[in-house]
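Please fill in the sequence for the structure shown.

STRUCTURE ENCODING:
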């Protein structure tokens, strides 16, 4: 319960590398997620070299420009949050690692089940990272803005659709939980 109530999206990281054994444990936890009819639809690419991180940041700079109208609309009363988010898009907060999540293959007959399965694995990944003292942030804008094919071509040729990216690193901030919205649950 502590993990569920205290994990936050981290957008500023220390430059400290994450040990390979820690990364392997985090990915093993991701692979233990439930999946639709046990298809285990996920495929992960762990980016950790400076060259590949820069290549991904370059894509995210393009995404930021396309996504900017969404951010401006969402944060019109919070210009500091807009600036912080745009900075994160271009720098990835200095994260030493970024995990890209894909469908293992194209053309799953149950695309919704596949998306839910990969999403469950990503949640496991972030909770396992927290348990290891590693911060994370889920990024979906690249998929929303139509960069799935480009990201797949550059980082996972021959795999299925890009779903999301998760930055990983030791936190260099301790954000507070944003207020939770009321009226999101009924007991019947």
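FILLED IN BY: designer on duty
SEQUENCE:
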């Amino acid at each position: 319960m502590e993990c569920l109530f205290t994990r936050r999206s981290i957008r500023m990281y220390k430059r400290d590398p994450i040990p390979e054994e820690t990364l392997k444990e985090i990915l093993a936890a991701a692979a233990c997620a439930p999946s639709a009819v046990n298809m285990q639809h996920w495929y992960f690419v762990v980016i950790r070299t400076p060259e590949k991180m820069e290549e991904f940041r370059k894509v995210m700079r393009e995404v930021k420009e396309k996504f900017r109208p969404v951010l401006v609309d969402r944060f019109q009363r919070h210009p500091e949050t807009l600036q912080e988010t745009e900075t994160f898009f271009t720098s990835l907060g200095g994260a030493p690692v970024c995990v890209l999540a894909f469908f293992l293959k194209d053309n799953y007959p149950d695309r919704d089940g596949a998306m839910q399965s990969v999403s469950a694995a990503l949640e496991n990944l972030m909770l396992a990272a927290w348990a290891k003292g590693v911060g994370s942030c889920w990024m979906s804008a690249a998929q929303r803005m139509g960069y799935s094919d480009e990201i797949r071509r550059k980082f996972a040729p021959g795999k299925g659709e890009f779903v999301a990216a998760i930055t990983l690193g030791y936190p260099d901030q301790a954000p507070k939980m944003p207020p939770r919205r009321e009226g999101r649950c009924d007991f019947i």
